[in-house]
Amino acid sequence: MSDDRIIAITMPKWGLSMQEGKVMEWLVEEGTELSMGDDVVDIETEKIANTFEALDPGLFRKRVAAPDEILPIGALLGVIAPAEVSDADVAAFIAEFQANYVPPEPEEEEGSGYENIEVNGQRIRYSKMGEAARSIILIHGFGGDAERWLFTQQPLAAESTVYAVDLPGHGQSTKDVGDGTVKSLAETVIGFMDALEIGAAYLVGHSLGGAVALQAALDASDRIEGLSLIAPAALGGEINAEYINGFVAAKSRKEIKPLLQQLVADKALINRSLINDILQFKRIDGVTEALTTISGQFQDGTQQTQNLAAQMEELEMPVQVIWGSKDEIIPASHANNVPDGVDVHILEGYGHLVQLEAVSEVNPLLLAHAS
Fold first, then answer.
1. pLDDT digits (tens, 9 = 90+) for 166-218
2. In degrees to the nearest 10, what's the CA dihedral of 241, 47, 54, 25?
């Protein structure tokens, strides 16, 4: 009979498409007393590298996975157990786990949790996690897709039904973006809610998606319960237009890699697989035209052309703004433009993709504000 005092640390599943991860570096020694949220091990996935944090407190007894080892989701990485549990019992637990562990079958895209729905004549791809009454919709930024939320969607789904959408022109949604304005993208979000019969939702938007979420709240305030805006556009003038225009034009690894590295403070997070995914997306018919149309609507080559900061005064809902202090795309100083009463958090040492770089700080802020 297994000892319930022994806790397995297993390969996490970050995002619907993750099948395996590579152990990069252990950050704790055996014999360390762990608290929830402590950094335990660095893991690289096919999308991005990240640090796995302790989900349970306790004494870290044994490293099982070795650095550079590639393991499927659910595989045993290490073991937590109190000191009174003998080494023999820990070894027996590991042996039993390994003997009974069966790697999950690889998932095809069609069965991986992604679905398509028609919204205002457009095909919109989305993923859904959770079954709670409260609905949260995650809206990615320019050039991104639903997988920008791979470290966010599942934690939020513990208490809510959480949808991550591919905006028109992005991911595997339609590449016909119409006029490509922030307002039309916001209409797509409201149309998405209509199509799935979501009466009201909390919106979380990153970068351009932050502007879209804010516009949706202004246009349909009776449908939006609150906002979390992460490094949002449309709160000031400055923007890294060289990044935007370079991203649209880039066709090779040599061109795209230094651009993507501007999204994060830790440049090592931009790995080869992520670069390949972006290049593959950009080679889809209609993508360049869609991105050109959208970028031309929110910036003129030097500055943002839309500023919704003043209109935030109209909102009668809780609003949160989260920014990385080292954002190279949209300066964190734009947070100074929001009205009094907005819950502002500037996280030191992180870049534009702060929800990927600072998971342990961002997710608790989102959970607290959206609850």
1. 999 999 999 999 999 999 999 999 999 999 999 999 999 999 999 999 999 99
2. -100
In the beta sheet, which residues pair with residue 128?
Answer: 163
Cα→Cα distances 225→128, 203, 205, Å: 19, 8, 14
Residues whose CB falls within 8 Å of the CB of residue 61, separated by 6 or more in sequence, listed in order: 30, 31, 78, 79, 80, 81, 85, 87, 90
Question: Global pTM?
Answer: 0.79
| Regions of the chain with pLDDT less than 70 | 1-2, 15-17, 46-49, 106-113
CB 154 within 8 A of CB 129: yes
- Residue that has been written with the tokens 């950050």 in this structure: 27
Residue pLDDT, tens place only, 68-107: 999 988 899 999 999 999 999 999 999 999 999 888 776 5
**CA-CA distance, 196 to 107, in Å (whole number)?**
25
Report how far residue 142's alpha carbon sits from residue 245's, in angstroms, rounded to the nearest whole number.
Answer: 11
